[in-house]
Each structure stands twice: as structure tokens, then as C-alpha cells.
Specification:
Number of helices of chain C: 13
Distance between the termini of chain A: 37 Å
Largest sheet of chain C: none
Helix content of chain C: over 70%
Oligomer: heterotrimer
Strand content of chain C: under 5%
Distance between the termini of chain C: 21 Å
Helix content of chain A: 25-40%
Number of strands of chain C: 0
Low-confidence stretches of chain C: none
Mean pLDDT of chain C: 86
Structural class of chain A: alpha+beta
Strand content of chain A: 25-35%
Number of strands of chain A: 19
Order of helices and strands of chain C: HHHHHHHHHHHHH
Largest interface: B-C, 109 and 101 residues
Chain lengths: ~325, ~290, ~280
């Protein structure tokens, strides 16, 4: 249940090919996150899997069967939309019951399932309200409830948390992760937020311009990014990149070092520079250092409060074991 | 929604509307075109054969033609000027804070919903009648001689009646447009030191210019076709014979169908010119 | 503007606006008042505003003598019928254009709107002739058809804009939930589209009721609606102001009330979306 295979999928809109031939395997029970910048095709890919868009060529298999020509309703998948897409003229109960009604269940059976889902999602008190009377987080849960009752082979989430405020987003992230742990159903999750990707995924698929840049577990992508793009996309704040003499020293065209892998000292170190902007969060300090010989500032992250201010001269030393090397095609050198 | 099933379903669903409108447009148009090239007098002999462009020439060279064009221009132009100028002022006024704005809106909008025959007759009899009309009483109260509106000031009378009917439309459109003006723009201008008149000229008016253009285009199309008001008041006499009315008379009253049809073709061409401008704006909006 | 507006300014605005509003509304007010006067008092010099002998005799006379009910009924049937027909044809067309757009959808929509701009007088004689041939002259059926055709572009246009406002995602959710096309339209689209359909119906009834070209030229005694009935007062005998007022009040009252509710629809329907 819930195994999905994409075989040489392409998608074109008119003459524009937005997804060149693409292969992907999603195993049963995995939490897979499609992540990438705006316009990278992650939502399109999700919609192809859902059946809301037709593939231009290629094959989609769901649980071993070819689902490429199968209409969305019959694929056994459930989707949670970015705007929740709740039916405004129906109560929460009717919203959640709708797919069951379409499947032909009688009223008693429908109510039983709706009540069960509502209990899991803490919606029991809201069953008779209309979507317009609910908060963002509650609407989210109704959308999830509508998906759960279908007992699908896989859940598809299309940037579900983008419309929520920051605090709510953190809560809902946890809830969705917990849901995955209890249901153990395959979940495919689209987001542009790499924090969500890192925290929720079993497997991350990084996309750029319709091309899969890398597939791997969060830590794989963190420690061994395949190319410059993935290296710069995963991890916040962004990895520092240096070229020219700085990179040549390590036999590479470009080197990358994450802000958290650089140590700062007032007295000695490999690279010297002056502190530009310094951000003090209490738990961390971010320093943006103008290093001699580099045009862009280097971001440095230190734990706790380190007491450096604007204008201070500092010395930076990268952790040698954590330097990433890239050739002039941007690919990782081992 | 882009699957094969829905596409064929869509074509079937659009078919009746497309066929009906196509028929509505092509059949009578073709007939008018055919008649315009014939000498066709149903009351005096019927179809008398092809005469080429004869009707077209005779229509514009008839002594009634240029006066009718003039009349049309005066009426349409007059109504446009009055409705737009007053419409802009009124919409600005209605946008101001006041009590009972909703009711004032209803009062101002009401004339548009009155059927043209009622408006025309109410104005003709109860206001403009030289003996019993309110204007007559008013004039007499100031010691002046009442005006014979519909005979001496006939064009003005028609313009008054039609403007009264269309002012609500212009006002409503312009009010909608004004209310879409971001108040922050005006506040920024105020902070920049602009006095009210400058704010009107540099911010409000340019913002309204699009709405004004649309009002002009739409009203022109409808005003060119004014009929009922003239029909029930002057019957085209006293110099109120517009191009539309002239065609109507040729075709239905004197039953010179060929001549009237040629006139009809002229009217269609004229309306199309205005329509092209309007459709360009609508088209741009559809892309948005 | 969030600043406190002086009461003085608000008062001036209110006085000015009300004065102008009442001035504009005055002819309608005067007509309604006159409908309750006797004919003699209707032409009284000086004109009587409120203090006269209020009477309902005009309403009675108009309804009895001129077979008013038939004209009213004709207006109702023609306006209602053309609207109903227009909706039946327009809803599927607008649905397909809004939800299954093709490259030519925009062009077709614009073409439909352009048919509304055809000057009626240009096709008057052919229609007149066709009606005689088909036996449709002075029939309610004929008039209903014509009014439906001239308003169909506006109906389709308005429905199209309302349909476009329904978020596509909700329909996709229905599809994912297992709904067939028919179920999608029945259970999701139509309930959400009802306000839009109602608005379109409202505007169309108003436009059809007030139409005064075809209703004047294609009817005589049998199918004439109120527009034509009122037109018959243009060559009256004897004193008639009060009766004209009563007839007029009855003719315009339903639409004035409907119009009250339909301002937004008016803007949407008659500016073809060019003003928002």
C-alpha cells in the first residue's frame, strides 16, 4: 500500500517543458518532501501524482499498477490543498463526510467515520460549524480530516502550512508528523520551506526547474550535498561559498562551509576580517564578516553570546573536516 | 481541469448559446445587407430589384441626413458631458463621510430603473408641459413666460430627459471606481503637501480616467440607440430626429425598406467603431 | 481616512448630498404623489405637494378600464420568460468557458459581448419581417425570444465572472473526493454559484422589464407589455396626469424595489468587468 513509482515522467504546458524526464521511487509508509524554490515544479509533480494534471509522457505506478490514465478520484489518494479547499456551504461534518458520500456509504457508516476522524483531530466540538466560522488551524484540520476518512494509499500535501502564522506552523508541523507516526501511511509533502523539509521528512527530493537535484534523507543532504544548489538550499543560514584562491587551496573551483562550522577568534585564525552586521538572539549569534579578499560577507554562527560587535576585527577558522568541495560544474568532489 | 472528457462536454454546453447568437447576428444582418442593395417598397410594389449602392448614396444625400447626424451628435454629446461632469462631482460627494449615505445612493440611482417611456412622459407632461407642467408654474412664479420645452427647446428637453436617466449609471460606475482608490495614495499626497484641488487633479482624476473612458464608450453605444424617449415625446419632430429615428421612420413608417436598410448599415458601422474601442479595454481586462 | 472627521464637515456633506439626491429623485416622488390626486388637483395652480385629497381612484380606473392586468402579465411573462430561457442556455455556456477554457474562449466571449452592441434599428426590418412570416408578431413568445437574445451576452458574461470567482481548488478537492462531473456540478458548483445566478437573474429581469425598443415595435394589442402601455399615454384625451402617474407608479414600482438590491450587479453586468 502506498508505493508510488514515477517512470520517465515529463510535463509540458504547450511548448514549454517544465519537467524533463524524471524518475522517482516512493516506498510505502515514507514521508517524502518535495522541496525547492518557487517555480521548480514541485506542486506540478504533486498534481501529476494526484491526477489533477495529465502527464505529457511517462508512467505513474501506484502499488504496482499503472495509474497514468486513471482519473484522480480512482487513484486512492487524498490531497490537502494549500488553501484547504473546504466546501464553504457545508458544515464540517458534511465536508469530512463528502468523500464517503461520493463512495456510496450510508449515513450511519459516514457518521461513524466522521466522528472517529474528528476525535483524532480534536474537531468534535466543531462538527456543526461552517468553514467560515473556523480559524486557520481548525480549517487545516478539517482538510486533513477529509483526507483521512478516505483511508488513502497516500496523502498528498500541497504547501499546507504556508497560510498559517509562524507559531501555528510549528504546532501543525508536529501534528502532521505525529499523524504520520500513528497512521504509517505514505505522505508526500510539498513545501518551499527547508526547515519543514528537514524536520518532517524521511526522504527529501530537492527540485530545481523540474529536475531532481538530489534525493536522500535530511542528514544525507546536510552532510553530503551532491551539488552547489542542494548545498546552498539546505541549511539555514545558507552555506558560505568561496571561489578563487580560497577554493584553489583545497583543490576545488568552489568550496562551501556552513556558518555553524566556522569558529571565531579575536586573536588568531585562518581568515581575517571585520564584523559587519551582528545579530544577537541570545541562543545564537550570527555574525556577517567582511573577509579580506572576498566580495560577499561570510556568515558565522556561534552558540550563545560571543560579544563581537560591528567593526571588530576577527579571525575565522573553518572546521577542516566540514569543508565541501565543488568542481567547476558545481558538482561535489568527494 | 483539462481532461478530454471535460473538453467535449464543454463544447456541447457552449453550442446552444453560440448557435443562437450566431443566428441572431447573421440572419437579420444579412437580410439588412441584401435589402440595402434593393429597391424594396412593401406598400408600393414590393421588391423592385437590385439598385447597387443607390440607397447608400440617397441616404446620405437626403436632406434629412446631415441634420439627423447633427442631432445625434448633439444629443449624445450633450448627455455625455452632463452625465460625466455631474457624475464625477456626484461620485466624489457620495464618497464623503455623511449620514444616510445608503439612502442617498438609492435616491440617486433610482432614475436608471424607471422605464424610458415612463420617464419621457412624466417629464413631458408633468414638468415640461407649457400649461400644467411644474416648470411652467415655476417660471410663472418668477414672472417669466413659460417655455414650450418640447417644441422650442426640443433638443435640450430630450437631453434633459435622457441625462436624468443615465446620470445614475455614470455616478454608480464612477463611485465604484473612486471607492477602489487606495486612500493611502491620497494620504501620501497630503503628506507631500498637496492641497485638495491638486489631489483631485493629480490623483483622483487620473485614477478615474479609465472609468470615465468606459462610461463614455458604453453610454455612447446605448445613447446612439435612443428610441423610446423620442417616440413618445416628439415623434422625431422639431429637430429631434436622430440617425436611429430617421432609419426607423424610413423602414417602418414610410416603409422604404431599401433606403432604411442602407441607413441601418451606416448605423451598424458607426456602432462597431465605438465597440472596437470598448472591446479592446474589455479584452485587456479579461487577460488580467 | 482614519482621522476624526469634523461634525461640521459631515453635516455639510449630508445636507449637500441629500439635497441633490432629493432633487434627482423628485420626478419619481412627484409621480407617486400625483397618482393619489384627483385629475383636477393634479393640474392645480399652484402645484399641490402634500396637502390634497388623497384618493385611490386613479389606480382603480387604470386597472379597470385599460385592462391593465393584461399588460402587467405580459411584462411579467416576457421578463421572466426571457430570463429563465437565458439562464438555461447561459449557465452551461458560462460553465464551460469558466472551467474548461480553450485558446478561443476569450475571443468567443468578446464576440458574444459585441453582439449586444449591434444597433437594434439596423436589424429592425428583417426581424419584423421574420416575425410576420413566422407568426410571431405581437406574441409573447416572439418577444420573449428577442429579449432573451439581446440579453444573453450579459447573462453569460455575468455568470462567467461569478464562476471564475469560485476557487478552482475546491472543485479539484471534489474531484479528489471521488465526485463525477455531474456530482461536482450538482453538489459543489451550483450551491456556490447560487448568489451569482441570483444576481444575474435580478439584473436581467430589470433590463427586460424596461426594454423599450423591441417591445414598442413588435407588439400591438395582445402581447404589449407595460412599456408599450405607458407609451399609449403619449396621445391622450382629456385630463390624464393622475392616471398617467398611477399607471407609471404601478409600472415602475417592482423594478425600483429590485433595483435597490442590484447596484453591484449593475456595475458588473453593464461595464463588462472593465470597472471593479
Amino acid at each position: 500500500m502506498g508505493q508510488i513509482t514515477l517512470n520517465q515522467i515529463t510535463k509540458s504546458f504547450g511548448d514549454v517543458q517544465v519537467i524533463p524526464p524524471l524518475d522517482l521511487q516512493i516506498d510505502d509508509g515514507e514521508f517524502v518532501v518535495f522541496v525547492g524554490p518557487s517555480g521548480c515544479g514541485k506542486s506540478t509533480l504533486l498534481r501529476l501524482i494526484a491526477g489533477l494534471e495529465d502527464v505529457t509522457s511517462g508512467e505513474i505506478d501506484i502499488d504496482g499498477r499503472d495509474a497514468t490514465e486513471v482519473p484522480p478520484a480512482k487513484r486512492g489518494l487524498a490531497m490537502v490543498f494549500q488553501s484547504y479547499a473546504l466546501y464553504p456551504h457545508m458544515s464540517v461534518r458534511k465536508n469530512i463526510a463528502f468523500p464517503l458520500r461520493m463512495a456510496g456509504l450510508d449515513k450511519a457508516a459516514r457518521n461513524a467515520k466522521v466522528d472517529a476522524a474528528a476525535k483524532v483531530l480534536n474537531l468534535t466540538d466543531y462538527l456543526d460549524r461552517r468553514p467560515g466560522q473556523l480559524s486557520g488551524g481548525q480549517r487545516q484540520r478539517v482538510a486533513i480530516g477529509r483526507a483521512i476518512v478516505r483511508e488513502p494509499a497516500a496523502f498528498l500535501f500541497d504547501e499546507p502550512l504556508s497560510n498559517l502564522d509562524a507559531a501555528l506552523r510549528v504546532n501543525m508541523r508536529l501534528e502532521i508528523s505525529e499523524l504520520h507516526q500513528s497512521l504509517k501511511t505514505t505522505m508526500i509533502y510539498v513545501t518551499h520551506d527547508q526547515v519543514e523539509a528537514m524536520t518532517m521528512a524521511d526522504k527529501i527530493v530537492v527540485l530545481q526547474a523540474g529536475v531532481i537535484e538530489q534525493v536522500g534523507s535530511p542528514l544525507e543532504l546536510y552532510h553530503t550535498p551532491r551539488n552547489r544548489f542542494v548545498a546552498g538550499f539546505i541549511g539555514s543560514p545558507k552555506m558560505n561559498f568561496m571561489m578563487g584562491a580560497f577554493a584553489a587551496e583545497f583543490d576545488a573551483a568552489t568550496i562551501g562551509i556552513r556558518p555553524e562550522h566556522i569558529s571565531v577568534s579575536r586573536s588568531e585564525g585562518k581568515w581575517s576580517g571585520r564584523v559587519g552586521v551582528s545579530e544577537h538572539l541570545g541562543s545564537d549569534t550570527f555574525l556577517y564578516v567582511e573577509v579580506d579578499g572576498l566580495s560577499d560577507p561570510v556568515t558565522v554562527r556561534s552558540t550563545g553570546e560571543v560579544g563581537f560587535r560591528h567593526g571588530d576585527t576577527v579571525y575565522l577558522t573553518p572546521d577542516a573536516g566540514k569543508i565541501h568541495r565543488f568542481n567547476n560544474q558545481g558538482l561535489r568532489i568527494a | 481541469m483539462a481532461t478530454q472528457h471535460s473538453r467535449s462536454a464543454a463544447r456541447i454546453m457552449m453550442a446552444p448559446a453560440v448557435f443562437l447568437l450566431l443566428g441572431w447576428m447573421l440572419i437579420p444582418l444579412t437580410m439588412t445587407l441584401v435589402f440595402s442593395f434593393k429597391k424594396y417598397l412593401p406598400l408600393r410594389g414590393g421588391d423592385l430589384g437590385w439598385v447597387g449602392f443607390d440607397n447608400y448614396v440617397r441616404f446620405v444625400s437626403s436632406s434629412a441626413f446631415w441634420p439627423s447626424v447633427q442631432t445625434t451628435l448633439v444629443i449624445v454629446g450633450g448627455v455625455l458631458v452632463i452625465t460625466i461632469v455631474l457624475g464625477v462631482l456626484l461620485s466624489i460627494l457620495l464618497d464623503q463621510p455623511m449620514w444616510g449615505q445608503g439612502i442617498v445612493r438609492i435616491l440617486v440611482i433610482a432614475p436608471f430603473f424607471v422605464m424610458p417611456t415612463v420617464s419621457a412622459l412624466v417629464w413631458k407632461n408633468m414638468f415640461m408641459d407649457p400649461v400644467n407642467g411644474l416648470f411652467a408654474h415655476l417660471w410663472q412664479a418668477f414672472g417669466a413666460q413659460p417655455i414650450e420645452w418640447l417644441s422650442d427647446a426640443s433638443l435640450l428637453s430630450i437631453i434633459i430627459i435622457v441625462s436624468w436617466q443615465w446620470l445614475p449609471f455614470a455616478t454608480l460606475i464612477l463611485l465604484t471606481a473612486i471607492q477602489s482608490l487606495d486612500s493611502e495614495q491620497l494620504e501620501a499626497a497630503e503628506m507631500d503637501g498637496a492641497p485638495p484641488l491638486a489631489r483631485f487633479g493629480f490623483i483622483i482624476l487620473p485614477h478615474l480616467s479609465r472609468a470615465i473612458t468606459i462610461v463614455i464608450l458604453i453610454q455612447t453605444i446605448f445613447l446612439l440607440a435612443i428610441f423610446a424617449e423620442i417616440f413618445v415625446t416628439t415623434g422625431g419632430a422639431f429637430g429631434t430626429r436622430t440617425l436611429t429615428y430617421l432609419i426607423f421612420q424610413r423602414v417602418l413608417e414610410s416603409q422604404n425598406v431599401g433606403l432604411g436598410s442602407a441607413g441601418g448599415v451606416y448605423a451598424i458601422i458607426l456602432a462597431n467603431i465605438v465597440a472596437i474601442f470598448l472591446m479592446r479595454i474589455v479584452g485587456k481586462n479579461l487577460d488580467a | 481616512m482614519a482621522r476624526a472627521v469634523t461634525t461640521r464637515r459631515k453635516t455639510i456633506n449630508t445636507l449637500a448630498a441629500w439635497a441633490i439626491g432629493l432633487l434627482i429623485f423628485f420626478p419619481i416622488l412627484w409621480t407617486i404623489l400625483t397618482s393619489f390626486k384627483t385629475e383636477a388637483q393634479a393640474i392645480n395652480d399652484p402645484p399641490l405637494f402634500l396637502f390634497f385629497d388623497w384618493t385611490l381612484e386613479n389606480y382603480a380606473v387604470v386597472q379597470e378600464r385599460s385592462d391593465y392586468m393584461r399588460y402587467l402579465w405580459n411584462s411579467v411573462i416576457i421578463a421572466g420568460g426571457s430570463t429563465l430561457l437565458g439562464i438555461l442556455i447561459g449557465v452551461p455556456a458560462a460553465w464551460s468557458m469558466a472551467f474548461v477554457p480553450s485558446k478561443r474562449t476569450k475571443d468567443i466571449l468578446m464576440w458574444m459581448l459585441s453582439t449586444k452592441m449591434l444597433p437594434a434599428v439596423g436589424v429592425l426590418y428583417p426581424i419584423y419581417l421574420l416575425f410576420i412570416e413566422l407568426g410571431l408578431l405581437d406574441t409573447r413568445v416572439g418577444l420573449t425570444l428577442v429579449l432573451m437574445l439581446i440579453n444573453l451576452p450579459i447573462i453569460i458574461w455575468m455568470l462567467y465572472t461569478y464562476f471564475k470567482e469560485i476557487p478552482g481548488e475546491i472543485l479539484e478537492a471534489a474531484r479528489m473526493d471521488g465526485a463525477t462531473l455531474k456530482e461536482e456540478i450538482l453538489y459543489i458548483l451550483t450551491p456556490m454559484a447560487i448568489p451569482g445566478i441570483a444576481s444575474t437573474v435580478l439584473l436581467n429581469i430589470i433590463l427586460a422589464w424596461n426594454e423599450a425598443f423591441w417591445t414598442l415595435n413588435l407588439t400591438a394589442a395582445k402581447a404589449a407589455p407595460l412599456t408599450a402601455f405607458i407609451a399609449s399615454y403619449s396621445s391622450p384625451e382629456g385630463l390624464f396626469y393622475a392616471k398617467l402617474s398611477a399607471a407609471s407608479t404601478m409600472a415602475i414600482a417592482p423594478i425600483l424595489i429590485l433595483g435597490w438590491f442590484s447596484q453591484k450587479q449593475l456595475v458588473r453586468g453593464l461595464t463588462f468587468g472593465a470597472v471593479k
